[in-house]
Write a structure and sequence with these properties.
7-stranded mixed β-sheet; globular; 37% helix; alpha/beta; Nucleotidyltransferase, domain 5; single chain
Length: 499
């Protein structure tokens, strides 16, 4: 029966907001809240956030839920956490942040990446099963060492995004294996911090938190914090995982060969593997269920592109409507957007190019192009970038016998249908699944409350199937070839006139 105690909270520290989800013992969502925070763009290619904004947003969400559901709040037993990868919080000796956190989408460290590839590339890949690029923490640290030496010297401790919220909740300094891997400082085979990689970064192992399993209970919410949040004393906190790992767990992607499309601020296609199966063009992380791993073919701009075009082309009085207004416009334009092609490289691009110099573009625009064509072209451009990711995985023999889709973009039936047609594959969209829900499921599983690891599949009404249309898919394949040709032609121009 629904709403039976105990209850679990999932807290996800996302790229644009914190989201909290409250579930009951049956895995049914009872309440959810979201609180946004700003991103700073002090220079081209830079993207930063203040870590304390995450904490404020997380506490705001939790307090909103406990205030609205005081009787249920008394039965909250555990909090699970997830958060963005690679986003390091740098702290001084008193455990206070010394600067804004550099985000995963920041592209400033291109020179440091070139240095790491030239001098240490093979060692890094062998130790951490990943290659250096601007996304990872290690090159970001080297950028700070070069350009902000006075700040770099003050680094005493380093945490990844959700671990800072964990610390503020519990006072415990800890991380999980997936978040540790996202720093590019860990030895993936021994699950310990790598002395060699730490030496490259100029840090000591004492600066880094102990590495734990995602399902480990690290402590309880501190009494003073619990009181301020409307929680009872003794609420347990699970160390949690990266957002992508939480989504995989929450959607029941726990078997090798399962594929999943992420439609968040960024996006990508993930494939679960029986063990580590790294590829220099992909991101490789440990799964919550060991010894599974997963790889991600990542694209930088999904929700980012949606929000960007909405801010430019949607009437202000409807700006807060999530997808409905965009779908209204996009549905007025036919398949192919009347010839308009959009490349969603607002933040450079990752797979398959790993090129921070790429820029977004609309091409084939004419005097007859209308607002609806631009908006639909953004939907289709996102789908084409995901096809780039999907084809790279398929061409490199990553098995995906079933393709699921989760994240905020799952709320848009038109966008999901376009993705299914562009990729040419049936998609199962889990419209209630996201990282926060996955984090709540991890908490429930950690306490032995929910023993079914299929996560959100047990939630009623959460699954929508989107079969692809073969005729549409063939038409999109022709446009996709034009998309690829345009990308190749424009890339050289962007490199000549890079920032």
């Amino acid at each position: 029966m629904a709403n039976c105690p105990p209850f679990m909270l999932g807290v996800d520290v996302g790229t644009s907001s914190v989201k909290c989800v409250l579930i009951d013992a049956n895995g049914v969502t009872v309440a959810q809240r979201r609180a946004p925070y700003p991103t700073q763009f002090p220079q081209p290619r830079f993207a930063e956030q203040e870590p304390d904004h995450w904490v404020d947003a997380a506490f705001q969400c939790i307090k909103s839920i406990t205030k609205a559901f005081p009787d249920l709040a008394k039965n909250i037993e555990c909090i699970g956490l997830s958060g963005t990868a690679h986003t390091a919080v740098l702290l001084d000796a008193s455990m206070k942040p010394i600067r804004a956190a550099i985000l995963w989408k920041d592209q400033r460290s291109e020179e440091q990446v070139e240095y790491l590839e030239r001098e240490h590339g093979d060692d890094i890949e062998k130790i951490c099963l990943n290659r250096a690029n601007c996304t990872w923490t290690l090159p970001q640290l080297l950028w700070l060492k070069t350009h902000e030496w006075e700040i770099y010297q003050k680094i005493c401790f380093l945490m990844i995004s959700k671990d800072y919220v964990l610390f503020k909740l519990t006072g415990v300094f800890a991380t999980d294996f997936s978040s540790a891997v996202s720093t590019l400082l860990v030895d993936a085979s021994s699950r310990t911090w790598s002395a060699k990689l730490l030496d490259i970064a100029g840090l000591s192992s004492s600066s880094l938190p102990p590495i734990m399993d995602s399902t480990d209970v690290v402590g309880t919410v501190q009494s003073s914090v619990a009181r301020s949040l409307g929680l009872n004393d003794g609420v347990k906190v699970v160390v949690g995982s990266l957002d992508s790992a939480a989504e995989l767990f929450g959607t029941g992607a726990i078997e090798p060969g399962t594929g999943m499309i992420r439609l968040g601020t960024a996006g990508g296609v993930m494939a679960v593997t029986a063990g580590p199966k790294p590829n220099p063009m992909l991101l490789a992380y440990p799964h919550i269920i060991q010894p599974l791993w997963y790889v991600q073919a990542a694209t930088n701009s999904c929700g980012t592109a949606i929000n960007w075009v909405k801010s430019l082309l949607v009437d202000q009085e409807r700006i807060d409507e999530p997808f409905a207004v965009l779908e209204e416009w996009a549905s007025r334009s036919p398949l192919g957007s009347n010839g308009v092609v959009f490349h969603p490289y607002l933040l450079g691009e990752r797979v398959p190019y790993w090129d921070p110099s790429l820029k977004a573009s609309f091409t084939n625009v004419s005097i007859g192009t209308e607002r609806a064509d631009f908006i639909r072209a953004v939907f289709e451009g996102i789908a084409f970038s995901l096809r780039d990711c999907y084809e790279y995985l398929r061409d490199h023999e990553y098995e995906m016998t079933q393709l699921k889709l989760a994240g905020g973009g799952a709320q848009s039936p038109l966008l999901v249908k376009i993705i299914a047609d562009v990729i040419g594959c049936d998609i199962v969209a889990l419209t209630e699944a996201d990282s926060a829900l996955g984090a709540a499921f991890v908490a429930s599983y950690a306490l032995g409350i929910q023993t079914d690891r299929n996560g959100v599949q047990t939630t009623q009404g959460a699954i929508t199937k989107y079969p692809y249309d073969d005729g549409n898919s063939q038409a999109y394949s022709r446009i996709y070839q034009a998309y690829k040709d345009i990308q190749r032609s424009l890339a050289g121009i962007y490199h000549r006139y890079r920032d």
